[in-house]
Design brief:
Blueprint lengths: L1 H4 L3 H13 L7 H11 L5 H31 L1
Helix pairs in contact: 2-4, 3-4
């Protein structure tokens, strides 16, 4: 995972936030998909794939944070 370790958390967060929040108006697409999921209306394959694609950057940031915490624990 050297490629993930080589990216700073700040840059990763900035770049991923663009993907997470796109499109910015009228509301973020991820938010629309989460509302559909909450109401039980997320039933089309394209909507499910869209939700996964917009949520993937959140998983990448979480993965980076877990790696940072593990590396700091090993160093201590």
């Amino acid at each position: 995972m050297k490629w993930l370790d080589s990216i700073s958390l700040l840059w990763l967060t900035l770049l991923c936030s663009v993907l997470i929040l796109a499109p910015f108006f009228p509301e973020p697409h991820l938010w629309q998909q989460l509302k559909l999921l909450g109401s039980g209306e997320l039933n089309q394959t394209a909507d499910i794939v869209d939700l996964l694609l917009h949520a993937a950057p959140l998983l990448l940031i979480a993965w980076k944070i877990v790696r940072i915490v593990r590396q700091r624990r090993r160093a201590a």
